[in-house]
Amino acid sequence: MVSQTQLKGPDVFARTFAADDKTLSAIAARLEARAKHSFFQQVVGEYLSALKLSGTESVLDLGCGTGVIARMIASRGGHIGRITAIDI
């Protein structure tokens, strides 16, 4: 496993609690843009399909960022279970 100290570049998501509004806005914009990419949509779609959710489960999304995946789950037809998305 790689630790944060071994990485060559800073992890911009590691200290978002200390970021200013401009930086947080840039991070959020990037997360939302990435979520629209066809590769991301395909990978997450395949993963959610593999989970075979019945629609009644409660889902907890920890470290959800802007909540993209939680929203994808909610938008899948028939999901009536609770979805909780938490981030800093």
Automatic annotation (TrEMBL):
Keywords annotated in UniProt: Methyltransferase, S-adenosyl-L-methionine, Transferase
Protein name, per record: Methyltransferase small domain-containing protein
Family annotation (Gene3D superfamilies): Vaccinia Virus protein VP39 (3.40.50.150)
Residues spanning the membrane: none
Record lineage: Bacteria, Pseudomonadati, Pseudomonadota, Betaproteobacteria, Burkholderiales
Ubl conjugation in keyword set: no
GO term, biological process aspect, one: methylation
Pfam families listed in its UniProt record: MTS
Domain of life: Bacteria
Domain Methyltransferase small: 48-87
Gene Ontology MF terms: methyltransferase activity
Keyword Methyltransferase attached: yes
Family matches, as InterPro entries: SAM-dependent_MTases_sf, Small_mtfrase_dom
CDD domains, per the entry: AdoMet_MTases (cd02440)
